[in-house]
């Protein structure tokens, strides 16, 4: 069942604010998120990947109502999110932030951090919920953590506390923005498994935002690849990672480090700059950097379409490239693809 | 930031424990720092004087002492009867000094309370809300920065009433400006921490976020400005009194100096003007010592250069 649905969601930021905005006649916008449509079912972990500046964090913040939607619609359980009261909405949707060193209040004990959302929502069974959350986040026994301050626990434990805090309200959706990027590699797997457990045992829908394909591959059921505010390719994790079909996805995957010293590291380095998100080109945003680009790419818009070669079980597989979808890309001509 | 030692075992205790823990925090910070300890000892001594000063003063500070030959004991030097001598009008300098402690600390602490409450509130509100709220509050702060305090105080006191409470009120109304600016800038950087956004995405109201998330993090700065404002206001109140606009119903150090100057007695009876001056320096130095120590602890970057 669809829990969270984005329908042509867009977020533009003004380049000028305050007095400048009043004086200048032509207002310019940074198009951070551009007509993104996504469907998240219950218990699904969707990975949102892309290089920095592609709008993935902005998208997360739009869903968290930290930013307001410029255009399009986001619905939760079929109801537009603006129709929810703030508390009502955040009861359902919670966020885990990137940096656990900043996302916990240094002046509050673990108990106070977790009690605060419950107090805001007027729950009386605070102590039980706090203990239950901490146990789920593998901070056991909870008594050992309840009265500690953030500076007294490790980075991994901090992020577990942040996850436990997101869980105390028992939400149905969690937005996780790079939740392990600040953590030591040795403890990432444990935190990642926690997210997987959340989806499997509690049916929580997770939007996992990351630039790190290795972690995305580890826990996500579906992946959306973003570039300049657009979804370039969307599909089941296996599909995207084993047979990337969009030229940009292919590039992104080939940039992932491989733990194999004999691996051929030849890869294409782009000369072309990423286009300015204030002044986006017509047609495909990726055409300047794409070796398959033809004149048709100036015309063709970037709506997501199923590839021609899609098989029956590939019904969720979509891409924004008309040539890749038609299947007329000759991958053999690209050096990095022949590894 | 973990420079404040917190004993792991005391924390699980009752509310009373946590309250006393909070009350002891300023002291715990000063402990072990020589400058801070000296400041604290001086201040505690002055506090005791402020409380019992009038009781231990050997004379009524307003009583004129008449010599045996019927003349006024005017501008006398130190003697067994008057350890610090007498004033032009034959009053005991030591008694005035002791009684004056109370006004000085009253002005210092009451003004500092107004300064810290106003400054912290304005700083938190402007910093957290931002936008036009911030613009309006900060422009008001700028205007207050432009007020020259002595002329302003003298005019207002002339128009109203020369009472110690008007002086306190006016000083409080002006000296909150520094506190507000510093707290605002601290809030601006605190706001970037994700724990604030995290609180926002639970649906907590803005006042709740200010009180629960931000206030505990700026309190060390408020403590610091409490110490500074105590010093500023004692000096300024003394200046106002020295210029002759002090509360005429109260004995204060500033008024002692004013009277000594006004009666041309500075050279004849130097203790009359030197002793209150020394007391002002002592009081202000003690709160600055405490403030400096506190600043070093609240700001880790200053640590190690004491």
Description of the structure:
Chain B: InterPro entries: BP-dependent_transpt_permease (IPR050366), MetI-like (IPR000515), MetI-like_sf (IPR035906), OppC_N (IPR025966). Chain B: This is Peptide/nickel transport system permease protein. Chain B: One of its GO terms (biological process) is transmembrane transport. Chain B: Pfam families: BPD_transp_1 (PF00528), OppC_N (PF12911). The complex is a heterodimer of chains A (339) and B (306). Chain A is α/β, with parallel strands linked by helices. The mean pLDDT of chain A is 83. Chain A is 33% helix and 20% strand. Chain A has 14 helices and eleven strands. In chain A, the strands form two sheets. Chain A has a seven-stranded mixed sheet, with helices on both faces. Chain A has a four-stranded antiparallel sheet with strand order 2-1-4-5, covered by helices on one side. The relative contact order of chain A is 0.14. Chain B is mainly α and 306 residues long. Chain B has one domain (30-54, 86-302): MetI-like fold, CATH 1.10.3720.10. Chain B is built from ten helices and no strands. Chain B has helices spanning 15-30, 34-56, 93-129, 131-145, 149-159, 164-190, 194-200, 206-242, 253-262, 270-298. The chains are: A alpha/beta (339), B mainly alpha (306). Chains A and B meet through helix 3, strand 6 and helix 5 of A and helix 7 and helix 8 of B.
The helix fraction of chain A, in percent, is 25-40%
Model regions low in confidence, pLDDT < 50 over at least 5 residues of chain B:
1-13
Number of strands of chain B: 0
CATH T-level topology of the largest domain in chain A: Rossmann fold
The number of strands of chain A is 11
Fraction in helix of chain B: 55-70%
SS-based class of chain A: alpha/beta
The CATH top-level class label of the largest domain in chain A = Alpha Beta
What is the gyration radius of chain B calculated from CA atoms?
23 Å
Distance separating the two termini of chain A: 40 Å
By CATH, the architecture of the largest domain in chain A is named: 3-Layer(aba) Sandwich
């Amino acid at each position: 069942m669809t829990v969270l649905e984005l329908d042509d969601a867009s977020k533009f930021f003004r380049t000028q604010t305050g007095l400048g905005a009043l004086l200048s006649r032509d207002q310019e916008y940074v198009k951070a998120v551009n007509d993104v449509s996504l469907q998240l079912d219950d218990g699904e972990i969707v990975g949102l990947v892309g290089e920095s500046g592609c709008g993935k964090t902005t998208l997360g913040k739009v869903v968290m109502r930290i930013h307001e939607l410029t255009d399009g619609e986001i619905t939760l359980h079929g109801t537009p999110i603006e129709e929810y009261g703030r508390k009502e909405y955040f009861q359902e949707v919670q966020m885990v932030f990137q940096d656990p060193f900043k996302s916990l209040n240094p002046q509050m004990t673990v108990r106070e951090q977790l009690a605060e959302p419950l107090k805001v929502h007027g729950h009386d069974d605070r102590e039980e919920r706090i203990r239950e959350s901490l146990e789920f986040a593998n901070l056991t026994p909870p008594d050992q953590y309840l009265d500690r301050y953030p500076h007294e626990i490790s980075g991994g434990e901090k992020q577990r506390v942040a996850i436990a805090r997101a869980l105390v309200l028992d939400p149905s959706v969690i937005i996780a923005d790079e939740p392990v990027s600040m953590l030591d590699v040795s403890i990432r797997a444990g935190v990642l498994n926690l997210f997987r457990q959340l989806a499997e045992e509690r049916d929580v829908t997770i939007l996992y935002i990351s630039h790190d394909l290795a972690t995305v591959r580890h826990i996500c059921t579906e992946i959306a690849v973003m570039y300049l505010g657009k979804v370039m390719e969307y599909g089941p994790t296996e599909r995207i990672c084993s047979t990337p079909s969009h030229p940009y996805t292919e590039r992104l995957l080939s940039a992932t480090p491989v733990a194999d010293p004999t691996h051929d590291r030849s890869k294409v380095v782009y000369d072309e700059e990423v286009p300015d998100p204030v002044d986006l080109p017509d047609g495909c945003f990726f055409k300047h950097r794409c070796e398959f680009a033809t004149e048709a790419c100036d015309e063709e818009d970037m709506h997501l379409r199923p590839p021609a070669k899609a098989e029956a079980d590939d019904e969720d597989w979509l891409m924004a490239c008309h040539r890749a979808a038609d299947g007329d890309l000759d991958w053999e001509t690209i050096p990095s693809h022949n590894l | 930031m973990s420079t404040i030692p917190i004993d792991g075992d005391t924390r699980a205790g009752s509310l009373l424990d946590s309250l006393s823990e909070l009350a002891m925090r300023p002291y715990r910070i000063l402990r072990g720092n020589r400058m801070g300890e000296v400041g604290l000892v001086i201040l505690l001594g002055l506090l005791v004087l402020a409380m019992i000063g009038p009781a231990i003063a050997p004379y009524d500070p307003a009583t004129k002492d008449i010599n045996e030959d019927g003349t006024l004991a005017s501008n006398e030097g130190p003697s067994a009867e008057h350890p610090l001598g007498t004033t032009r009008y034959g009053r005991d300098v030591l008694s005035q000094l002791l009684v004056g402690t109370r006004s000085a600390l009253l002005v210092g602490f009451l003004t500092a309370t107004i300064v810290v409450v106003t400054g912290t509130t304005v700083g938190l509100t402007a910093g957290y809300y931002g936008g036009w709220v911030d613009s309006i509050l900060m422009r008001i702060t700028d205007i207050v920065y432009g007020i020259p305090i002595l002329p302003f105080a003298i005019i207002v006191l002339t128009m109203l009433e020369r009472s110690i409470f008007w002086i306190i009120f006016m000083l409080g109304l002006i000296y909150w400006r520094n506190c507000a600016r510093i707290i605002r800038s601290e809030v601006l950087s605190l706001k970037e921490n994700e724990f604030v956004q995290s609180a926002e995405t639970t649906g907590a109201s803005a006042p709740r976020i200010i009180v629960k998330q931000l206030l505990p993090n700026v309190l060390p700065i408020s403590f610091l400005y409490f110490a500074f404002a105590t010093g500023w206001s004692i000096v300024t109140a003394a200046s106002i009194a020295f210029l002759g606009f002090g509360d005429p119903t109260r004995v204060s150090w500033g008024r002692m100096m004013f009277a000594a100057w006004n009666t041309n007695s500075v050279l004849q009876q130097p203790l009359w003007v030197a002793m209150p001056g020394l007391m002002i320096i002592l009081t202000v130095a003690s709160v600055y010592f405490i403030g400096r120590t506190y600043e070093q602890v609240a700001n880790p970057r200053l640590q190690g250069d004491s």
